[in-house]
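Entry 14. Structure prediction run on the chain below.
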Amino acid sequence: MSKLNGLILAGGRSTRMGQDKSQLVYHGKPQREHLTDLLRPYCSVVFWSVNAIQSAELLNSNQLRIVDAFDITSPLNGILSAFQYDAEAAWFVVACDMPLLTGQSLDALAKGRNLAKMATVFYDSDGQLPEPLLGIYEPAFGPILHQAVKEGAYSPRQLLQQNDIQLVAAPNIRELTNINDPVARAKLDL
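Output returned:
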C-alpha cells in the first residue's frame, strides 16, 4: 500500500469570497488548520497546497506546503504539484472551502478506498458525478494527470469521469457543501 499524504487545497485566488478561504475561521481556528487536524489521523504527513503569494506569506511557518508548480488556474494545479513532489504517494485531497466536513466523511473515504482504482471519491452533492475536491488519488493517477495537462485538459471532475475510479456514497451529503462567497458564508449553519 502506498504512503498516504494529506493535501489541503488552499491555493485558489478566492476572488468570489474576497479573502483567502483557507484562513476563514469556522471552528475556532483558520480552516486550513482545522482540516489539517482532521486529516492527520489518516495520513503520514499533511501539506498545504498554496500559490506563490501564500507561500511567501508563510515563510515563518513550520507547516509543510507544496507550492503550485504549474501555470494553470484549476484545483488540478495543487493535485498535480503534489504528485510532482511525491509521485510514489497516494494523496488524500481536501478543498479548503468545505467547513462542514467531519471525520465521518474522511472515515467513509478511507474505508471505501480501492487501491486497484485510480482514485476513490464521493458522488457529488447531486449524487450523479464524482466530487473531485475530496478524495484519495492513487499514485497511478499522477501520470494521467500530467498527460491531461499537456493536452490542455484541466478539469479534475472530467478526468475522474474518464478513468477507472471508485465512487462512494457520502454518509452526509451536507458535508460536501462548498462555501465560496460571503452570501453563502452568512447563510451557513454550523
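The mean pLDDT is 92.
Filed with the rest of this week's runs.
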